[in-house]
Every structure is written in structure tokens, then in C-alpha cells.
Amino acid sequence: MKRRAAVKGLLIFTGGLVLLPSCMLERDKASVQLKHLEVSGDDEKMLAELVETLIPTTDTAGAKTLGLHKFTLKMVDEVYGEEDQRAFQDGMAAFQKQTKKQTGSTFAECTPPQRQEVVAAVNAGNAAPEVLAFYKIVKDQTILGYLNSELVMTKLRKYELVPSRYLAYYPVKAAKVTSNG
Amino acid sequence: MANLNVDSVKQRTFDAIVVGSGISGGWAAKEFTEKGLKTLVLERGRDVKHLKDYPTTNLMPYEFEHRGELTREIKEKNPVVSRCYAFREDAMHFFVKDEEQPYVQEKPFDWIRGQQVGGKSLLWARQTQRWSDLDFEGPARDGFAVDWPIRYKDLAPWYSYVEKFAGISGNADGLEELPDGDFLPAFPLNSVEDYFKKQLKTQYGNRHVISARCAHLSKPNQIHLDQGRAQCQNRVLCQRGCPFGGYFSSNASTLPWAERTGNLTLQPHAVVQEVIYDEKAARATGVRVIHAQTKDVTEYYAPVIFVNASAFSTNQILLNSTSHRFPNGLGNDNGLLGKYVAFHNYRARISAEYEGFQEYATDGRNPAGGGYIPRFRNLHQQETDFLRGYAAGFRADRSKVEDKSGFGAELKKQLLNPTWGTWKVGSHMMGETIPKEESRLSLSKNQKDAWGIPLLNISLDYDANDDKMVADYHAQLEEMFTKAGFTNIQKTDSKQAPGLDIHEMGGVRMGHDPKTSLLNKYNQLHACPNVYVTDGACMTSTSTQNPSLTYMALTARAVDHAVRERKKQNI
């Protein structure tokens, strides 16, 4: 807490210069400003690898590059209700613990095949209920963030702000894929 | 000094004052200024200029911090307005927040307000169906409220008049219960909507699905281009304000038109406290206005005053306009001001799926929102154990679905290569509710708002007639869906509070008799004829149609009357 006050003081001292070198970030805190959730730097690393395992980098960017772990944290912290936030919080701890028990290391330290093994089990429903609740929230938000990302909406499944048409009988064979749903 | 005062009074004197700049106030402004009257429009909210003040209009979904969602903090602070479907991240700046203007819910009522220049005309659902005599004759035939002092023939030319200017898309459907208008081409029904239309025709004969008539420029005429508007581009992001002026709003249409005449003075941040009544002259002389921010009080004067503050706010202003002559509110000799308010029953919905028409989907977006089912219950005579009936929306959608079951590269592939799902169909009910004396508005005796104006008490509820209608809607629509071969039918009753329909009406109703109504057939207060009310407050009954088009027609007609009466020096 003192350290945070000191950092704040420094910011004021430098005239509000908002360039915070990463070495000054509290090591045990997430890089996203959170009001309701308690998320450590390690938790954030885990989330980054988890969303990347869900939507990996292939010939196009994956979830970690798109920052969807941060997006997930922001949405859970600012949009979700209290109950869901608790479920997220508890489930995150349970997921960390389960991974450690299963692999002997943290999720972030796991090799990609190890991570896939952990996620495969959870995705198939083989985990404690609190882990499943946490996983569902992360997966939902990762998918939402991905489908609503600039990359997808401008390059991969184009969203048309101005369609300028309504075709009421559209032959399905000619359909091209867009984000307009 | 004396001269200064005279000048000041002169500067604050106009030929007409219009309270409110929403859908009906905008029309009053246009009509008065076009007829050459120096007109003051008072709006309690901030100014919103077409194009310039639509901050979110061109944002992509990923540019919204929460991808369109409301934050928990906003929802907790604004439980009422957060229940409105359009109060989302892209348009929440056009709604009144709960704490900004409190009111007293004697019974639960979700009062959804849009207070800025343009009012709710920026936010409306743009559905525009005419009334017929089956609606105007309802109260007289079925013995509730009072008889409407007008019939369809009185309003028909004015419907045409406003439709031509606003731009209404629709088909000539030839239905007695929903008269045809002066339409731009309709937005078409899709394969499943068309199929349902044909099914109903075959199975029932007298039940219809039509392309919903809506205030969108499907194919603009010169008069629309002259307003600076262009063809609707099917964005269906209307609630943000439209950069093309593709749908009708005061901001895109009537207000800039009025401004171009040089006769318009638009005053935002102007909270109207009351209409001033001059006991000696025995007429209303102006309005007293509190500046929303500075709280400075100013009086403005005009020989004609139109109160178009939105249905319940108009009631509030008139109830608060007390004088020796009118101790209970302006024009309120019979004690009925604020009473007989009503709304539309939007509680019920039904959804289903359809396996057919796999060869078709839709492409682009439909601004009309799909089909409209005009009222078919109790149309020509009483047939059910409830009074009146309901209209319904009907739409079919087929969207692409992603298989989200997996993870990893496989999930990513699925998300980027969605497949067409099955058709989903859905309908919502728009039920007429019966205005009753116990459904009423009044002023709080001990609570005031930030401007010292008594809060509005709202006491309005569903009754047994509404519950029966919900049950009938569910039963009838289920039968219609079943006959059409729709499957997986789901019925819901949201039990939402009145108000969320955003069709509250009445309290200053029209009627023949000053003993039982407040307004005459030209929307003049019986007891103070230089004051007109042409927004939702004037409605004697609600029928089932979305009411805005009727407000527009009543307003244009009333201004025409007021100007003629002024010339004859009758008011």
C-alpha cells in the first residue's frame, strides 16, 4: 500500500506523466486496474496463457496478442455482477491449485502440450464446479472479445457498419461470412 | 429603465411557444415557423445538433470499452433506465439517468425519458401505423373512457401530410383496421415471414402479417433530400443518431427545417416550471422557465402555447400551473387532469424455430424490423372475455452460428467459419390498456426536484383485462405458430412494469364535453383555448398502434387550427 502511495506521489511529482516503467509495477498485481477483483501478476500470466490456449496464434494473431486476458479481467471487473465475480475469483484460485497438483508447475510455467492437457479436461467438464464456472466466464469473454476484435471485424469476418442493403431472400449458397449475424 | 424593461419583454415575446422538442414539439416548430410565426421552442435538455452531436454514430463495436454492455456500476445506479432495451453503451448519453430526475412510483412504473433537443425522437423504434375508426370508436363502442371527439376522416389528410414529409415506408395492404398511407417502398418480408403471412391468410383469412411500416427513407423523395436527409443505409444503429438522416427525428428533419425559415428560436436547458395564466385577460400569456444549470428564472410570452413536453411531463407542467382561476392545474375544472392515463401492454413474447427455407437467409439489415400483425381480436364486435385487443410484431431471423464447444486451433477455425443456423421466429405483444380514473398522476406534496418543482406521483398498474389479454395472446400466437409448423415454442411473460413500453399516454384527454375531458377536438384546453396539448398526454384511449405518427398528425392539424384561430382573433 505504501509503495502504491509512493508511486502515486511520484506520478503527481512528475506532473502526471503516465509512463510507468514495467519495473515499477508491483510484481504481485495485475497490470489492469481493477476495482472488484483481486488478481496477482501470476494470475494474469496464467490468464494470458489460458486465453492463448483457447484461441492460439496460428497464421493470425491469438488471444494473448490481442490482449483478451486483460479484456476478460476488465469485463468481469466492470460488467459482471457480484456473484459472478466471486465465482471467477474462487474458480481462478481453484484452477491454479488444480493445475499445480496435476502438473507440478503453474499454468504459465507449463509447456504448451501440458496446458492443452489441462484445458482439454476442463473443457470436457472434468473439473470441480468452481473451476468450470471460472473457465466458462473466461471462455465466454475470450470468444466475445475475439469476435469483436478489430482484427476479426476488419480482416477475418468483416463487420459492415454501413450495409446499404437488405436482401430478404438471400440464397444461402452464395453466402459469405461476415460479422453481421 | 422602463424602456429597457419594455425591450426585454419584447425580446422574450414570440408568436408561439412550444414546450418540448421531441417528435410532436418538432412538428409544432416546423408548422408554426413555416406559417411565418416567430416561434420559441423550449427544451429542458442540452442541444443535440444533427450530425455534430452523435458522438458514437460511427464507432465500430470494438471501439466501445465494454463492447456495448452496461457496466455494473451504471446498472446499479440506474435500475429503471437500465431495463430499457436501447439503454446500452452506444446510446446511454441520450437517456435521463434515474438520479437526475426522480419521481414517485406509487406503483412500479419505469419512466424512460430522453431529454435533449430531439427528445426520444432520436431513440424511438420508428414504427408508424395509422389508426382507423375501429380504434377511434373503441371507447364509445365498448363503454370506457369517453368518446374520441375525432374520427379517422378528421385525421386522414394530416396523416398523409406528415407521412409525406417524414418519409414512411410501407405497402398498401388494403386493410380496414390499418389504413394505407402515403408510403415510400416497403422493406420486404423475408422467406419465413412471407410464409407465415400466407399461412395466416389460408388458416384464418382475417389475420394478417404486413411489412412493418416505419419512418425510414427506403427511397427518398425530393422533399427528404431538401431536408438534407439521404436514403436509409440499413445500419440499424438508429439509437445513436443517424449520419444519413435515414430515419425521421426532430434533429434530422423538423427542427433544421424550422431553423431555415429564420423564425425559430431554440432554447435548450429550459425547464418549464409552469404556464402563466393571466386572471384579468382570462388567458395563458406565457411560460415561466428555470435554466437547468444556472437556475435563473425567465418568463417568455406568446399568444399561443403548445405543451409537448412528453406525455407525463406535460401533465406535470399543467398540474403545476396553478392560479386563482385554476387552483388544481391549468384547465382542470373537472378534476380529471392527470387521470385516465394508460400505456401499452408489452409483457408477452413468444418464440419458436422453423426447419424450412434452408435455402434462404437474409443479407444486410432490415430497418423495419420485420412484420407487423394488426389487431384481430374484437375488431368489429366483442368476441372475447376481455375488452379490445393487441397488435403484434413478428420477425424471422436466421443467423450464423459458431460451434464453440472446442478449444485451441479448432475453436478458432470454428469461430472464423460459422455455419447457418435454423430460422428463429419471434413475436411480441402490443396490447391496448383501458384508461381508468384510478390510473393517475399527481404532484408530490412534500418532495421537489432540483428545480423546486414537485415530483410527479405515478399510480398505474395492470388489471384483470390485461392479464386475460396476455393469456389470449399466448394462446392465439401458439396456435398460429403451431399451424405454421413452427417448433420449440416458448412463451414468456416478463411481468415488466408499465412504462417500459415507452407508450404512456393520457391525463389531458380529448373529448366532446368539458365536464369529462380536458381538450377539445382541436387539442385546445376547453377552459384555456390558447393552450394546446398534442403529445401523448392528449390521448383518450391507447389502441394498439405505436402512437408517434398520430401525435405528429394531431400536432400539424392543431397548429393549422391555432393559426387560423389567431387570424380570426378567436384565441
From TrEMBL, chain A:
It comes from the Bacteria. This is Gluconate 2-dehydrogenase subunit 3 family protein. It comes from Rufibacter sediminis.
UniProtKB/TrEMBL annotation, chain B:
Its cofactor is FAD. Signal peptide: none annotated. Residues 435-554 form the Glucose-methanol-choline oxidoreductase C-terminal domain. Residues 105-322 form the Glucose-methanol-choline oxidoreductase N-terminal domain. Keywords: FAD, Flavoprotein, Oxidoreductase. It comes from the Bacteria. Belongs to the GMC oxidoreductase family. This is GMC family oxidoreductase. The lineage of its organism: Bacteria, Pseudomonadati, Bacteroidota, Cytophagia, Cytophagales.
